[in-house]
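Subject: sequence -> structure tokens, single chain

Hey, anyone have a minute? Need the predicted structure for the following. Not urgent.
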Amino acid sequence: MRDFPFPAARHLPADAGTGSDGTVLAFLRQGLALHRQGRLDEAAKAYEQALGLAPGASQAAHLLGLVEHQRGNNARAYQLIGQALAAQPKNPDYLTDMALVLGPLGRAGEAEASLRSALAARPADIRALGLLAGMLVKLGRREEAAGCYRIAIGHDPHNAHLHNNLGNTLTLLGDKPGAIAALRQAIALAPDLADAQSNLGYVLNEVGDYPAAIAACRRALQLNPEAPGPRFNLALALLSDDQPAAAAEAFFDVLRRQPHNAEAMRSLGDCLVKLGRTEEAIAQYAAAVAERPNFAAALTNLIFHQNYRADLSIQDAVAEARHFGEVVAAGAKVATAHRNTPDPERRLRVGLVSGDFGEHPVGRFLAGPLAAIDRNRIELFAYATIDREDAMTARLRQLVPNWRKVFHLTDAELSALIQGDRIDILIDLSGHSSGNRLAMFAHKPAPIAVTWLGYFATTGLAAIDYVLANRWVIPEAEESQWVEKPWRLPDTYLCFAPPPVEVDLAELPARRHGAVTFGSANNLNKLSEETLACWAAILHAVDDSRLALRTAAFRDADRRQALLARFAALGVGAERLVLEPAVADYAGHLARYNDVDIALDPFPYAGGTTTVEALWMGVPVLTRRGDRYVAHMGESIMHNMDLADWIAADTDDYIRKAAAFAADLDRLAGLRTTLRPRLLASPLMDAPAFARELEQAFRGMWQIWCTTRPPSAPPL
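Reply:
Had a minute. Here:
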């Protein structure tokens, strides 16, 4: 966003020089010339000489005050511009520049008042309007800021910088079509305005027009090759366009120019995750945190991706999460006086916060229970934190009567909205995954907060009261791993809805191919060195067997080759491996299981959705016992399927079981025909029963709050 600094021209008023020989005026003109050249120290000396000769010269005090502001001496600047205002209290230039000084001094209210006084004296002052709009953006008053820019544009419609700033403000407001229109107008007025091209690229990336976004950012770089902003936005667009290698190189380029850019470090980490270079990604997130210790977005990425590490102790993981909780709590304005009516039996208002209300595991796991929730007992609200919708989103919107798009709201604004909705129980469905709003939860906008479904470890936030779980993912012996209190559901903590597509089961692939095919559709980052070593041992133990791995990462040839090299180091040749990219078509994705005999669960980060999908397609899943929630997910699913014999005690047992199961084709063929009916009859797919269990959990939490709530304001 472009500020409106020291203007290109100023008029010296009549009181500028009082000496008969015009000496004061000469010093002022000399100072002004130096000032415009950026020679601040020399300009200050000239202004000081003028002020020494004429202590009452308001223009000399004003201009010297501006120099002090530009040199960072705002306390001195305040005194000098105040001196000028004492002589001319309604001078709009003085009032405008006083606002420049008051802002850094933390006196935003006075700065705003000073600008409004300047505009009362000179309503069409573009500089004052621009400064006021920029200040309103920083104060979070974006609607007012956009209105201010529109007023300025009304006075100066051909000012490309105003259109550019309006576009940026509309981006912050979530009005992406409006932002694109404003930025394109800026470019039409000034085709060589690199900032507008870069900003347009950013918004086009946000709306999913990646080729146009990349083109706009490249045009901005042509106009200003050394500017970091266009290069950063280009890297973001390349990453969105699934070009992580090119994006990583662009972020490396940003960091060569700006080695302390924590945002670039964090985004480079995102590229490395997509490239399957998890350890390097974690190092980048850690570097971003080292550069900016309170960088919550980098902290949350670091915490999430450390779950892939087999060598990370659970104690260290919990300590990292607690630190994150302390960081976000320090910046939160906690709502302590909840005015919710403490009636233990009344209808509850339950809010769901997520960026995954769509074709995502969270969306698919929600659909069944939300359809079965008793609307007489629970009123549902959804707070969608990402501006992305699909067919599943439309389905969920039909199930949730109160739908809020909140991706453009600040944490404070979202907290205020939730309080205004009088939510009783607020549910985090993201944890430390993408699109999360954990920092908002630190504001405690509802009496009760719960984390569920979208994450698999503690959030670290003291403001979140409960985690929904079961006895397998959080055994009593592991409660110390949690800041939240576990609330255990009777059987399962998730409910899988039947896929919306019909895919028939094929006969056992081993009977068709003459050899067993193991398989996994988990993402590349879950394939730890420990997991690969185990799977390689299975291939060595089972003659002629193959391993089919399917993940989006394999669209990239380099990532396929990198995994082949990892297996080659373990003595497994490429002829034993089938590496295929995931397919977007859900029916096609499920049909791929018709070529798999036994699915293998990775560790320490076990599968969830992939495990249930395999079972739906008649493919049994071999999992390993773990020591934390993320490593227990397969255990929970297999216990709910009465398939405890498919849970290995350790890695050696995992290898033995895989070989034994592969040797018994009759058993595999029998399981293949019974797993889908067994899944349908299990708690994992009994949406009405699961909805009742959710309702009972929410009611139990609410009744506890009603009896133990702290003193608060009178209920509404």
